[in-house]
From TrEMBL:
Name the record gives this protein: HRDC domain-containing protein
Organism of derivation: Corynebacterium marinum DSM 44953
GO biological process, one term: nucleobase-containing compound metabolic process
Xref: InterPro entries: 3'-5'_exonuclease_dom (IPR002562), Exo_C (IPR041605), HRDC-like_sf (IPR010997), HRDC_dom (IPR002121), HRDC_dom_sf (IPR044876), RNase_D-like (IPR051086), RNaseH-like_sf (IPR012337), RNaseH_sf (IPR036397)
PANTHER family: RIBONUCLEASE D
One of the record's GO molecular function terms: 3'-5' exonuclease activity
The HRDC domain, residue ranges: 222-302
Length: 398
């Protein structure tokens, strides 16, 4: 029967937030043994970006360290990078943590992702709490992951939660490696982990944001709508950067796009937009009017995306033979997924399957089965995925 673990077994570590304490932590960690269990706590729902406000590191022989880099990020990197970089890391859901760690100049030499390992092993639930309870017979304290981790001081129960995120990661990594090895999937997992690592290896800072990247903006068609969307975004971005505040707390994307769609002409009309905070109507109304009063020659034009695959309905109705082959391939990959107990999307991305099926049966961009491996690699499929899926695609698409 699983037992509850509400605080770290060695107590809650103190938060280290000074250059001197970073150097002390680095010295201690360098004396530890084996891989490093690492996690971060961020505040993207509250702050402008997704930077780490707490970094948790655990290593055998030296225990857990809670590190607060805010205010001394350069010194943090100078102290910790020589010790952490190039070593073996264990993370859970690594893709969510690696960007903020990369912004701090921290990069693993090799990676083991326990969440991804759980998916490849066929576990039904791959969140950290579910996996530790199933495999290690331990129930972790309830989560605080969505809290505002930028606030100071941090409550004791939050710190306990943060420390517990790495308390059992080393043991969980060992257990998952054994399971994957027993299932004959460890080499596959290693390819997946390396793909995740290299995908994040060149990150040095947040990706540049643009107003056209806002979800929903592409659905706007008229120049005046786009002009308003651009102006709203620029003002919101300026405010968010200056105040270090999440854009969703200033003007959520859905609201921004809806305002640009309906083009409210009065503060009363603006206040009726779903999700809009009425107290801000005058301010944003002036922004809208400024955009509409600007020279129409400066209004942006709609960018039409490059022609891609047809909709499912069009594909099925206009290219029935191609659709049937694609559907057969999808069914066979679903069967393979069930046989291997690996989610189908981890065997081959659905977008890759659609692209390859269309390219082989309609566009004729893939002329023979011999072209398949290179095409799949172009879609970032790993060798193990190609070995499993190429025979199925060959039998169904050619």
């Amino acid at each position: 029967m699983a037992h509850d673990l509400t605080t770290p077994r060695d107590g809650i570590p103190r938060v280290l937030a000074t250059p001197a304490s970073f150097r002390e932590a680095a010295s201690a960690l360098s004396a530890g043994q084996g891989p490093l269990a690492i996690d971060t706590e961020r505040a993207s729902g509250f702050r402008y970006d997704d930077r780490a406000f707490l970094v948790q590191v655990r290593r055998r022989g030296v225990g857990t360290f809670l590190l607060d880099p805010e205010g001394h990020r350069t010194e943090f990197t100078a102290a910790l990078a020589p010790v952490l970089n190039g070593r073996d890391w264990i993370l859970h859901a690594a893709s969510s943590d690696l960007p903020s760690l990369a912004w701090l100049g921290l990069y693993p030499g090799s990676l083991f992702d326990t969440e991804l390992a759980g998916r490849l092993a066929g576990l039904d639930h791959v969140n950290l709490a579910a996996m530790t309870e199933l495999l290690l017979d331990v129930r972790l304290a309830k989560g605080h992951g969505a809290e505002d981790w930028s606030q100071r001081p941090l409550p004791e129960n939050w710190l306990a939660y943060a420390a517990l995120d790495v308390e059992l990661l080393l043991e969980l990594g060992d257990t998952m490696a054994e399971i994957l090895d027993h299932q004959g999937k460890l080499d596959w997992a290693s390819e997946e982990f390396e793909h995740v690592r290299t995908t994040h290896a060149d990150i040095t800072g947040p990706a540049e944001a643009t107003w056209r990247s806002v979800r929903g903006v592409s659905s706007l068609t008229r120049p005046e709508q786009l002009a308003v969307a651009r102006e709203l975004w620029m003002i919101r971005e300026s405010m968010a950067v200056e105040e270090d505040r999440a854009v969703s707390r200033i003007l959520p994307n859905k609201v921004l796009v809806e305002i640009a769609r309906v083009l409210p002409r009065t503060t009363r009309d603006l206040a009726r937009v779903k999700g809009f905070r009425r107290g801000d109507a005058r301010f944003w109304g002036e922004v809208i009017q400024r955009a509409l009063d600007s020279d129409p020659r400066t209004w942006p034009a709609r960018e039409r995306p490059p022609r891609g695959l047809p909709s499912r309905q069009t594909w099925a109705s206009d290219y029935p033979e191609s659709w049937e082959r694609f559907s057969t391939a999808r069914t066979l990959l679903d069967d393979l997924s069930a046989d291997l107990a690996i989610p189908a999307e981890n065997i081959l991305k659905p977008a890759t399957l659609r692209s390859v099926a269309w390219g082989a049966t309609v566009a004729r961009e893939i002329r023979t089965p011999l072209d398949l491996p290179d095409v799949l690699r172009g879609h970032q499929a790993r060798n193990w995925q190609i070995e499993l899926t190429a025979p199925v695609l060959t039998d169904t698409l050619f």
